[in-house]
Write a structure and sequence with these properties.
By secondary structure, this protein is of the alpha+beta class. The protein is built from ten helices and 37 strands. Strands 14-15-18-17-16-19 form a six-stranded antiparallel beta barrel. Strands 27, 30, 31, 32, 35 and 37 form a six-stranded mixed β-sheet that branches. A five-stranded mixed β-sheet has the order 1-8-4-2-3, sandwiched between helices. Strand 2, helix 1 and strand 3 form a beta-alpha-beta unit. Helix 4 crosses helix 5, helix 7 crosses helix 8 and helix 9 packs antiparallel against helix 10. The longest helix is centred in the middle third of the chain and has 19 residues. It is globular, with a radius of gyration of 26 Å. The two termini are 41 Å apart.
């Protein structure tokens, strides 16, 4: 949907995957989104369609709406009676317009409005010449493509939105007009082909209103480029639109004064986590475009006005608890909000809204799903909990096994290959036709093709004439298991925000505003040859920033599935971020430079073999939690987990399983960690695992060829100056007195 234009160039909304965050403002520039002090209300209208009459069904739209509804009510101060949902058979063309018209009638001039659509999108030829690509974007109603029912065009929506008297309107459309079908029955594209019944659209064509540039206040966040797909699939046990899920999770863990840039960063990080889970080589690239002053303004207005009249709004997403027998509790609607087996939840008394670590009464670990709810077991030292208690997530669940499904392969061949693979990869589960699979296998003409979970990419093409095919496939599976386990080390309700990206030249800024493109495609690197000059293409450099003072630990799962600690390292100089501590609000470069004699004292060069690496950056609020992560990795030892770093039958736990146990202990202890401190100030680096040659490692921490010396003032960036105090900012917070921690991800694709 192309909304009001910003400058001469139309903002392409070539894909309604997007999340179009279009804030239509009738107020003055810089005003908050909502201000209850002006007697305004916050109103939401949420559309979700899974069951279409004439086009393929979706699985995640209703869950998108349910999660967003809870977040708006619990966290952002929307009253229940002002959050209206229109679902499935009620979301016909007439039903959608009736709901929009009612919203227009009820909305006052001081209100804030949120509109969300999850469902199919499409296109029709543009009949009034207002689209540069010659196509109008559309939403497909539940009865779309039946009889004489046309899609809902962006032109029609513009007319309705222009009549809203609200001070601000926030619109989220999670649908798409581009893309093709996938091989997976679990992951679906939210699009249908163009409607060719042009006679149905001519009466609805209007000239859209053009808002003068100086009066526009837009924040545009797109979920994908024109050629990319919007996907609907299973995330943490339930189906969602991937982009809606990422947005809801970013909002659910956001601070009251969260800015559009911070929301966007959270969406980007969550999409990376989903990408690793599904084994996709990349994810669609969201884009954020806005005038500079809006990027750093509170998204949902004055933080003090997020409470309803009847009860205070929580700043953290929570689910209700019902006590059971034998130390068991029921988490109501838990699976919808991430209560999957293995996830850990902190339990608080009924009515809790602040969720401070010191107020926690118990922790519980989910053991299984039971209908729409999740069954969890309380920790041994926990007292009985009251009915109506509240649970917040402190550690996501994980599945140690990798589900795989066969596609169209004759049963005798399938059985033979299955037996051979099970001998080589003990972490494999072969699943049925309607179950989620992380990889899809297809064998034809002595070739075994391995597809990503949605079937959109060929992960590998293996010759069955080569006896090593099963070893190669076992390596792919093992790396996937290790990566998935690494990504499961996630604290959904952390109060800390950290961003990480590969250090690259800053893109040019557009005169009309700032365009930010998410880094959801792997950074491309090539193996550095001996003696070759270090460049951004062959030696890794990360840019990291946190809103909280804390301690960094950087972990890598390389292309072979090995788990390596990259930072801190015993190669680093003693004055280079001692103990991994960084300040709040200051971007840091690690290492600080790729030139010989850098201040860091080490480099991260890429060595054979080629493949994909996943780097996870942990930031902890205190040193004890950081040391727990580092010491568990160093103590568990690579040989116990095998060459892949993943647990195999009869072997010890993987390093990441030990880390997970330690972080669970952090949650149960509340706000202090007692841990045996390793010798020295930093943990040893695992750049080259035992019994493996340096040539077989992934990104290796290497000592510079020349002695390390401090960079000259002209070459030292502010990012490496640890003595500089943090800049005063409303988005920089002091370190909390707790074991709080968070993590962010970067994917690296290494070429020969």
């Amino acid at each position: 949907m192309t909304s009001h234009r910003i400058g001469d160039q139309a903002v392409f909304i070539a894909c309604l995957t997007l999340i179009l965050l279009t804030i239509v403002s009738l107020g003055t520039p810089g005003a908050a989104l909502s201000d209850s002090g002006h007697n305004g209300e916050r109103r939401a209208l949420l559309f979700g369609i899974n069951k279409y009459q004439a086009v393929p069904r979706l699985n995640g739209s209703l869950n998108d709406v349910a999660v967003m509804r809870q977040s708006l009510i619990q966290q952002w101060g929307f009253k229940e009676e002002h959050v209206v949902t229109v679902l499935d058979e009620h979301a016909t063309r007439a039903g959608i317009f009736n709901a929009l018209e009612q919203l227009v009638r009820e909305t006052g001039p001081n209100d804030a409005v949120y509109i969300h659509y999850s469902g199919h999108g499409s296109q029709v030829p543009d009949l009034n010449g207002d689209e540069e690509d010659g196509l109008d974007e559309t939403l497909v109603p539940q009865d779309g493509r039946t009889g004489r029912v046309p899609d809902i065009t962006d032109d029609e929506l513009e007319v309705v939105f222009a009549r809203l008297r609200a001070r601000h309107v926030l619109i989220v459309l999670d649908s798409c007009h581009s893309g093709t079908a996938t091989r997976s029955v679990d992951i679906r594209v939210r699009s249908v082909p163009q409607d060719t019944r042009m006679h149905l659209y001519r009466p609805a064509v209007t000239s859209r209103q053009v808002v003068p540039l100086q009066a526009q206040r837009h924040i545009l966040m797109t979920g994908a480029a024109a050629h990319e797909q919007a996907l609907d699939g299973p995330v943490e046990g339930r189906y969602h639109g991937f982009f809606s899920y990422a947005l809801s999770k970013s909002l659910r863990s956001a601070s009251p004064s969260v800015t559009p840039r911070e929301v966007f960063s959270g969406v980007e990080q969550e999409l990376k986590r989903i990408q690793a889970h599904f084994g996709r080589p990349s994810m669609p690239e969201p884009q954020l475009e806005a005038p500079p002053q809006l990027l750093e303004s509170p998204l949902f207005g004055n933080p003090a006005s997020t409470a309803t009249d009847s009860s205070p709004a929580s700043r953290t997403a929570w689910i209700e608890v019902r006590p059971g027998n034998d130390r068991q509790i029921l988490l109501l609607n838990g699976p919808l909000f991430g209560a999957t087996p293995g996830s850990v939840w902190a339990i608080y008394p009924p009515g809790e809204t602040t969720f401070a670590p010191t107020g926690m009464v118990a922790t519980a670990t989910v053991t299984e799903k039971t209908g729409k709810d999740a069954l969890a077991r309380l920790s041994e030292e926990a007292p009985p909990v009251l009915n109506g208690s509240r649970a917040i997530a402190v550690l996501t669940g994980r599945d140690a096994r990798v589900p795989i499904r066969w596609l169209g392969t004759p049963q005798p061949i399938r059985a033979r290959l299955t037996r051979e693979l099970e001998l080589k990869a003990g972490t494999v589960d072969f699943v049925g036709e309607h179950e989620f699979a992380r990889f899809l296998l297809e064998s034809t003409d002595h070739t075994l093709r391995v597809y990503s979970a949605d079937g959109s990419a060929v992960v590998a093409s293996l010759s069955l004439k080569d006896a090593r095919w099963s070893d190669e496939l076992a390596r792919i599976i093992s790396r996937s298991a290790a990566t998935s386990e690494l990504m499961s080390l996630d604290n959904p309700n952390s109060r800390i925000r950290v961003t990480v990206k590969v250090a690259r030249p800053t893109p040019a800024r557009l005169a009309r505003g700032i365009a930010v493109v998410a880094d959801t495609h792997p950074a491309l690197y090539r193996i550095r040859k001996p003696g070759e000059t270090r460049l951004p293409e062959n030696s890794l450099q990360l840019e990291i920033e946190s809103d909280t003072e804390g301690y960094l630990t950087i972990v890598d799962v390389d292309s072979e599935g090995r788990v390596n600690t990259l930072f801190p390292t015993d190669h680093q100089q003693s004055d280079f971020y001692p103990e991994g501590k960084i300040s709040a609000g200051q971007p840091v470069l690690i290492p600080d430079s790729l030139t010989p004699g850098n201040r860091a004292g080490f480099f991260w060069d890429y060595t054979p073999p080629a493949g994909e690496d996943t780097i996870r950056v942990f930031l902890t609020a205190n040193l004890e939690t950081a040391e727990l992560i580092r010491s568990q990795l160093s103590r568990s030892g690579q040989p116990a987990a095998g060459a892949t770093g993943v647990s195999q039958p009869g072997m010890g736990p993987s390093p990441l399983e030990s880390v997970r146990s330690g972080l669970t202990a952090v949650a149960s202890r509340g706000f202090i960690v007692v841990n045996e401190r390793p010798t020295g100030t930093v943990a040893p680096v695992l750049s080259t695992p035992p019994n493996l040659s340096a040539a077989s490692a992934g990104p290796a921490t290497q000592v510079p060829e020349s002695p390390s010396t401090p960079l000259s003032p002209s070459s030292t960036t502010a990012a490496t100056n640890t003595a500089t105090p943090a800049t005063e900012s409303s988005h920089v917070r002091p370190a909390p007195a707790s074991g709080d921690w968070t993590a962010a991800t970067v994917s690296i694709l290494v070429q020969p």
